[in-house]
Each structure stands twice: as C-alpha cells, then as structure tokens.
DNA sequence: TCGTATTTTCAGAAAATATTGAAAGTTATG
DNA sequence: CATAACTTTCAATATTTTCTGAAAATACGA
C-alpha cells in the first residue's frame, strides 16, 4: 500500500473491515474502495501495486466485483489492457448489493425453509416447528420482495420517506428540509 | 447431529449457511436455529449433543447469542444447570439483529469515514475524494438512523407499509388499494 | 467452609478461507 | 499465423477463523 495518502489508506482499511464483517472478502472490499476513490479507471497492475497483492488475487476479486455489478470493465484507446471503473453513486451501489444479496442469500434461505416444511409433514408433533418455520418463511419472503423492489428504484426516494416516517428530526427552522 | 428429524436438520443446516454468508459464525447460527425450534429451554449439554460440538464451542456461541439479545438464560427449579431459550418472535429477532449490527458494524464505519475526512484536509487535490467519502458517510448515517429507529419498534408496522408503498400485490377483491 | 456441580477460559489443533505465482489460455496486431 | 501482451486458472501455501478439551474459576448446598 503506497504511503501517498493517509486518508485513502484509512478508507481502504475501513471499507475492507466493513466488508469482512458482512461476509465479503476483505480484498474485494478494498479493491472496491480503491476504485471508488480513483479518478481514472485502474488496470489490474495498478490494483496490484496499490494494494500489494498478487495478480491472481487482483484478477479474482475484480471479477467478483464485476459479477456483483459494482465495477465495470473499460478500455483505453491504443491500450490493450483492461481497465476497471467503479460505480460511484452510493444509491446505485446499494441497489447492486441489495440485488445480489437477495439472489445469493435470501432466495436460497426461502428455498431451504420451504424444504423444511416439506420434510416436516403434517403430524401433530411438528406443529410448533411448522409454525416457527412458517413465520420465518413469511418474513423472508417479505424481505425478499422489498429488496427486489428497492433494487430497481433508479433514485433513492424511499429512504428519505422512511426517515420522515420513523421520526426524522423535526425542522426547527421555518422552512422544511426539502 | 441426531437423526431424529430430517426437517430439523435441514433447518439447522440452512440457518447455519445463512449465518455464514452474512459473516456470522455458522455454529452460532445453528445453535440459534436449534433453540428457535426447541419447545423447552436447552442446557449446554443438550446443545453439545444435538450439534455434536465441544463444551467450549457451545459455551462461547451461547454467550454470543445472549450478547446479541437473541437468547435468554433461564433456570429450572431444583436444577443447578443453566438453560437457554431463544426469542421466537421473528420481528423481535430482527430488531435485536438490527440493533447489534448497527452498533458493531455501522457505527464503526461512520467513525472510520469521519476520520478519513479529517485526514483528507481541505486541499484542492482531494476534492473528489472528499465528495465520495462524504456521500458514503451521509448514506451510512441514514442507514444508522433507520436501523436504530426500526430496532425500537415493538411491533412490525413498518414492513407492511413499505410493501404497500413499493407495489405490494394489488387486491383482487372489489375494493381498490386505497 | 468444603466438596461437588457447573461454567468459563485459553493454548494448541483443525478446518476453512484467502493468496500466491507460474503455467496455460486468450486475444490483438503486424 | 506467429508473437507478444495480457488474462485466467489452479495447485501449493499462508493466513485467519473456528473448535477442542482439559484446567481454572465460579457457584451452590450441606
């Protein structure tokens, strides 16, 4: 990691940690952070030298980021190398993550819980079990639905509304927060 | 893992996987699953034998579950052993998780991003950097606020409202979605 | 207080995950 | 189509995380 900029290093560190704690490969999160604050698209070699990681590692995690829809491949004219550019809009990023986590983590849970109900049968002894699984399943389906809908919003209209609904700070000034 | 019940095993498996993919120790998630579908509180030994894990492992993860507010310690009269009982309400569980993840994972990110801004200074060269970090920071603060507010709702009123707002299925009955 | 039942801790072992780097594969260009 | 530039793969290795089990600590009842 270059020493160039302490703030940038702090950011790479911070973002990597956060990724880790949400079950995302730390290097993947760091590359994402690097690209997010990079003014130009970066090549695999740029990423390797900035983060001091191997080609294989850089390649694999860049591909993952592309798969997640957080990063685009790009090309510079007169250059054979591939460059990578991050989506910078926070809401767009949020949508991409919501979409992928729905697909990778919520949908499989729904399928798993449905299989539980299948296996549980209808006998008296499994009543409580079925009730609990059914409640989890319905909740999961609601979350699944909401993540899907949120992920397709072009603009972040929903969070400000929620903030108001859940008691956002009252405006003390005469004009609204508009 | 006892062979007693295929549905239960499926559930333990499924819940463990889900935990893993969200950065939660798989065993912790499995113990949680086990307690969720257990009619009586279970002792450490019960958990050990159901999941075939060591005392140390069981103890550590039970403590974590208690720390997360997902499991309560309980006692049976005339028995010196400690027993554990899961919160079963899905909404209550959701709130506990939201509360803890806010505290453990969102708040540190906010602090980290604020430190980035400190370190970045005010010079022209860091303009884009500051803009990006600032946007991430504001988004994080919004999420932080929302998780805090959601976590304190006794009842799940908010999700049904959201479902309606984001295009919940239209009523097929004669009256409109009013 | 003592002895016993129970819980907690923690160093070492095992398992899971992430990383490396070199070879194989691919693609663009003369 | 040969070559050089670049990308991808993957077996070996390193690192991190999780788990074990026995020892230490604690709580309880007589």
Q: Would you give an account of this structure?
A:
Two copies of one chain form a homodimer. Chain A is mostly helical. Chain A has seven helices and three strands. A three-stranded antiparallel β-sheet of chain A has the order 1-3-2. In chain A, helix 5 runs antiparallel to helix 6. The radius of gyration of chain A is 22 Å and the shape is elongated. The two termini of chain A are 42 Å apart. At the A-B interface, helix 1, helix 5, helix 6 and helix 7 of A face helix 1, helix 5, helix 6 and helix 7 of B. The structure holds a DNA duplex (30 and 30 nucleotides).
Keywords:
disordered C terminus; 3-stranded antiparallel β-sheet; homodimer; DNA-binding; 178 residues; elongated; 63% helix; 3 strands; 7 helices
In short:
Two copies of one chain form a homodimer. Chain A is mainly alpha-helical and 178 residues long.
Task: Work out the helix count of chain A.
Answer: 7
The separation of the N and C termini of chain A measures 42 Å
Uncertain segments of chain A are 173-178
**Helix/strand/pairing category of chain A:** mainly alpha
Give the amount of beta strand of chain A, in percent.
Answer: 5-15%
* Main sheet record of chain A: 3 strands, antiparallel
The counted number of beta strands of chain A is 3
What is the molecular shape of chain A? Answer: elongated
Percent range of helical residues of chain A: 55-70%
Secondary-structure element pattern of chain A, one letter each: HHEHHEEHHH
- What is the topology, as strand order, of the major beta sheet of chain A? 1-3-2
Rounded radius of gyration of chain A (Å): 22 Å
Multimerization state: homodimer
Q: Mean of residue pLDDT of chain A?
A: 93
Biggest chain contact: A-B, 57 and 57 residues
């Amino acid at each position: 990691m270059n020493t160039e900029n302490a703030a940038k290093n702090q950011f790479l560190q911070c973002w990597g940690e956060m990724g880790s704690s949400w079950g995302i490969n730390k290097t993947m999160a760091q590359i994402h952070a690097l690209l997010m604050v990079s003014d130009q698209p970066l090549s695999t070699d740029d990423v390797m030298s900035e983060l001091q990681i191997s080609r294989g590692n850089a390649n694999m995690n860049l591909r993952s980021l592309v798969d997640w829809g957080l990063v685009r491949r790009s090309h510079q004219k007169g250059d054979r190398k591939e460059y990578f550019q991050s989506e910078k809009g926070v809401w767009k990023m949020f949508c991409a993550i919501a979409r992928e986590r729905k697909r990778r983590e919520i949908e499989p849970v729904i399928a798993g819980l449905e299989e539980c109900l299948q296996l549980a049968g209808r006998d008296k002894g499994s009543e409580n079990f079925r009730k609990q699984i059914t409640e989890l399943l319905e909740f999961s389906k609601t979350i699944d639905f909401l993540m899907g809908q949120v992920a397709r919003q072009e603009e972040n209209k929903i969070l400000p509304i929620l903030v108001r609904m859940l008691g956002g700070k009252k405006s003390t000034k005469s004009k609204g927060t508009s």
